[in-house]
Batch of 2 targets.
Target 1
Amino acid sequence: MSGRPKEHRAEECREVFERLSEYLDQELPEGDCERLRQHIEGCAPCVEFIESLKKTIALCHEYHKSEPPRPIPEEILAQMRACYQKMLGARSGKP
Amino acid sequence: MAHDKSPDAELARQLLEGYPGAFDRFVETYGAKVFQYSYLMCGQREDAEEVSQETLMKVFASLDQLREPERLKAWVFRIARNACYMKRRKSVFAPSQELSLEEFLPAFEGDGERRKLQIADWSALPDDLVLQGELRRELDQAIAELPEIYRTVILLRDVEELSTEEAAQVLEVGTDVVKTRLHRARLALRKRLDQYLRSARQERTEKI
């Protein structure tokens, strides 16, 4: 609504920017979440900003280092197996 | 007690029961995850390989100390994180600078109803595969350059997808600290990618 004071809207946008991760991760108290949602629905800049942050997070979700690890050397794998068997043995010996 | 059916909890139980194949499955899944985390934390491939091997070794030796199988992931990453600290290199683990929120909040241009954000147009991104590839490389660099306390949070929460509580357990901090650092880290990455998008688009326009 054009009659709304500009400062008020800017403050609301700022709150969205500050708490956006909690909003997207659904970690905000219900009342705060609803208030932010109502502002976002009517605010094109906030929608635009949210899209850019969501895409950043999505890129992180599918991120993987381009250099995969080299296979673990056989002798180290054998040591790991030995550790594992020892732990299992100690465990089965427990009452 | 109701059994948690998450794949991690199931894997932990199978490991503890000596289930055939559980060892190999754990090495395959977690070897790669811990390597990636350690590589980005230590900055060196050799260190990351050592850290991931030490972590796996420690997990196998002390798995019987894991009280809650559903916490397997958090438990493993806590061991990995401690191993990374033992390998700390000054250049990478220099005292972490705090990122201020102000640096990463977007600026507006214009006012009233014509108010616009000064950010790139992200809307074409899902369809532009070349740009997506370039952005991934930029993201790699951007993650590596984050101060350590922010890098570790983004890796745990957004790359490995641990919950806020799990990340807090790994890092031995409160959930509020995780939330604050995660948000700043995301904003820092967003800003870096935004700058990249803007310059990439400008270059393309100039070529046409």
Target 2
Amino acid sequence: MEQFLLKLLIFLAAAVIAVPLARKFKLGSVLGYLIAGIVIGPFGLSLIDDIETVMHFTEFGVVMMLFLVGLELKPSLLWEMRTPILGMGGSQVMITFVAIGLACAFFLPWKQAVAVGLILALSSTAIVLQTLREKGLMNTSPGKSIFSVLLFQDLAFIPMLAILPLLAAAVVHTDTHHGSGFFDITTFPAYLRLIVVLLAFGLIYIVGKYGSRPIFRAIAASRVREVFVAAALALVIGISLLMTAVGLSPALGTFMAGVVLADSEYRHELESDIEPFKGLLLGIFFISIGASLNFILIIQQLWQIGGLVTGLILIKAIILFAIAKAFKMPGNERLLFALALAQGGEFAFVLFSFAKINGVLPHSLTETLISVVAISMFLAPLLFLLHDRLIAPRLQKTGAERPADDIQHGGRSVILAGFGRLGTDLGRLLISAGVKPVILDHNEANVDILRRFGFEVYYGDATRLDLLESAGAADAELIIITLGDHEKSMELVKLVQKHYPQLKIAVNAVDRGAAFEFMDLGVTTIRRETFGSALTLGQDALQLLGFDPYEAYKIRRLFRKKDKDTMPELYRIHREDEDKYISMYQQHNADLTELMKKDREIDMEELDKAWAAANPET
Amino acid sequence: MPSNTGKVMKKILILFGHPAFKRSTINAALRKAVENLEGITFHDLYARYPDFLIDVSHEQKLCESHDIIVFQHPFYWYSTPAIIKEWFDLVLEHTWSYGVAGTALAGKITFQALTAGGNLSNYRAGGLNMFTIKELTTPFRATANLCQMEWLPPFAVLGIHQGLPKEECTRHAEDYRKILIALRDNRLDLTKARDCELLNYERKSIINEV
């Protein structure tokens, strides 16, 4: 027990030290973990052993991650991605397999070449997805393409497990196979296997769609949080076991489960429960990859391994780039796509040892290739960095083929920045009034869907000057800012005021404090985003309480007017308090106090005087 | 009421407008007296359209499905509360209620049921309000004429400014109820009614008792 705890402590401590450091130098957490692994590994401080076991155990983090990814992906969205998954993913695996296989055929027997080609065609789901999520690229168009390829690779992993034993030089009989210990489905005839697999998916679908809700509701009702956590973990682990039992990738199974549950109201709960486990497991997994780098072997075969790593990354990147081009990805996304997936993956570790056991590949070869894959994985976050630092800025500058759509209908008089919940309704209102705004939104999915419904929505970051320019900010009359992010909105206001002083600004403020900040900038048309609904709901409430509908309506209108009237006064007091350097908390309280005081002064009698002076009872 | 002797019962629509209904005892009494009568639809415009966004086609359909249209409201500034004016402005569309093809309201009976602060002596030549109620409501009469409607003089409760005793209130409410029932059951002498000053002041003479 102490042994285990000590090991755990070493892993955690390494992560705690390395990750913040790595982030401080903007290297990303994955690289931090990998370096931590090298440091505590056998070729560093030699603090840990039995790395392979740790790696196998923590591989489960990948399974959890795919569950989380699935949760964010509704079935309809997944269906929309079928072309990139099958097209891009399929061509990537096939072409890379053929290319690497052919290259290897110069040095290896053809069966070994085929095996190596298959295994090296895969990339690292763990590293790439983690990095994409960290950079917030998951929902961008290159992020989705990258994800599609990874998903296809996950699918391809399964037939690879089936094909590899067929490539054995000599038939080695072994009872070590990939399946779990429940029952051996590999002994079944093919059609029966297919039925079992389909049954497994059907089970996940039915349980996820119909069974999960009452179960989660019952658990949630118990109000014991850890029980929900336990249920979430049990769900993921159970599906993994089921998938392993039927010979499928657990990652794929949990991903499917995630997709099925994406519509569930317990989605966020599941997400927040699984997230920390996933994070920890993946972290330790990355550490163990770092620790598994066999430096003695690497130094012995320095040139060979170096050459292989370079060759692997180059071949994969070139093929990916070509695919990106063939699938008409925008110019500046192609390199990201190519570099992101140009490494070997964690599946390679599994497949290499599987191939070794089955007598497909000799031990010395797998040792070398495992090092090659590990180094390429180590380089993966560095390639992301390279792209971020050196390539992306340059592509932005030339800007000829930005990811942002080229806006042909620029020069309209209204720009609507942000088409989220608020922007959508606002946009609908404007369009219904015959005003067609140029809409800018940063959510790729939104853009695609809304555009299908005939909205003129364009993808891009509204705070980018070049995008504003092409949206016609120079000739436009008005910009309406409905970004969810206050900081972004402030940035945009400043940008507009600086570069397009003629442009009228109407802005949505998340709260009163945000409104004050816009007032600082001199914006006069400010609406607080929840204020309107609050008052309307208040009117409904009064009516339900038996107030005359017209009375309730008048109270709402009067209240809104009074609130507007008191705003400058509240603003003045707020800023005075601020000058006194009181704390944020105190400031909030002071604001609220002033607000309530002002409310007490509101004279609702104004309403009663009307229609009463002359004819009290008419 | 089995008194509609074989004839079809007429359907009455009361378009009610009062922006401060909670404070009006007389309108509450009038409303209460007729609201739940068979064949009568009581339609509170301020409650239905607090934001004044009148559903024109709904209102037109309501009118089309009734034979008698009563406007019940306080007599504000010798006219109606704002929402009833809005109602006229929006609902009475050309080619629906007036103009060559506009015959949707043709033949329907209409009158105002109004409540006013001044008493009868104020509403006359030389009085505080200079004109009689009948004179002051001529715009409504002209409107009815343009829509080819059967106009009747107003039902008016006057003198509210001096305070209205409870029994007075009840009496007016009862009058209102009787007149509406008589109209509904075809027992009101329309020719006589058209010539009287105020419907309720000559109630007895215009209703044919059975």
